[in-house]
Amino acid sequence: xxxxxxxxxxxxxxxxxxxxxxxxxxxxxxxxxxxxxxxxxxxxxxxxxxxxxxxxxxxxxxxxxxxxxxxxxxxxxxxxxxxxxxxxxxxxxxxxxxxxxxxxxxxxxxxxxxxxxxxxxxxxxxxxxxxxxxxxxxxxxxxxxxxxxxxxxxxxxxxxxxxxxxxxxxxxxxxxxxxxxxxxxxxxxxxxxxxxxxxxxxxxxxxxxxxxxxxxxxxxxxxxxxxxxxxxxxxxxxxxxxxxxxxxxxxxxxxxxxxxxxxxxxxxxxxxxxxxxxxxxxxxxxxxxxxxxxxxxxxxxxxxxxxxxxxxxxxxxxxxxxxxxxxxxxxxxxxxxxxxxxxxxxxxxxxxxxxxxxxxxxxxxxxxxxxxxxxxxxxxxxxxxxxxxxxxxxxxx
Length: 397
Fold this sequence. Notes:
Blueprint: H1 3-8, H2 14-20, H3 30-45, H4 54-61, H5 74-87, H6 92-96, H7 99-109, H8 112-118, H9 154-162, H10 166-191, E1 229-239, E2 247-252, E3 260-264, H11 272-275, E4 279-283, E5 289-291, E6 294-296, E7 299-300, E8 302-304, E9 313-315, E10 327-330, H12 350-354, E11 358-360, E12 366-369, E13 376-381, E14 384-385, E15 395-396
Antiparallel strand pairs: 1-2, 1-4, 1-10, 2-3, 4-7, 5-6, 8-9, 8-15, 10-13, 11-12, 12-13, 13-14
């Protein structure tokens, strides 16, 4: 059944809500379309949401931002509508016990086009408030230590052999006799002239590129093109459960593996409402880092006012029309076509060496200024130049 036909089976006003959310995709592939249709069918039949079945739904949503694939679909609007009457009645202690469902529902209800479409149907789909700031910390259990395989000691082997059965002792005597014969033959071989062994080419011994060793990927002076910058889209955001000053975002960088978890210290500088659904520039090849128990897989590029953090911090914005995963690069023949490193080596401090040259120009355009030549290299995509909306002479990091 097509997605449109499945939507037609929904009860009003949910049917009208799903139909009126403009950015709700019906599926980018045939497989996704089938799954979207199946989820809407489950909602229509009343099988998607049950008070005693939230635990299963919570487990399904824990690793995912959306119910189908890694982007927003009509199935998410339908599931949001089905969850609404249930979650609107839950007390904090009840919705705290289903953190993934609560996070998912709150993300969907706060999407701008969902809120716009839901307004005419109030109170059926009114905004449900959640006290997430006082949510209990999630207990994270450490992985059990891996058992190391014990290598038998010589003494243990000797003890084992002394405890062998009488039948095994006879076999050992035969082996000992063979060992004596072999040692005699080895002594004879040792007395014979030895032939020189030919050295194998480096490639045969496992090294690439013949005798010449492969150059390190990050060899030479740090240059800005080593940094992997991409357009990202915040598809979900919440405050860190264990740190008052940190956000935990799910950011879509256009990867098949889905959004990345990113932790950023922006709570005291940018309100969460201004972060939701935001397009930004992310540094995507930093080594993943644990931030108070949550692993962060990228960094949000921000502009800090020239007078310091207290004067303001804002997100660096990609040009209008940007899509998640769009490549962000530095202008100039030396950088435009260069490939970034797969991962920056923290010991080399490549980002730290380049970062002092990041700034915003009088035009608010983001750029890197070469400290040696003072040449200006704007930071851009194929659609235009990235900007710090309000700051001039800001530091980017």
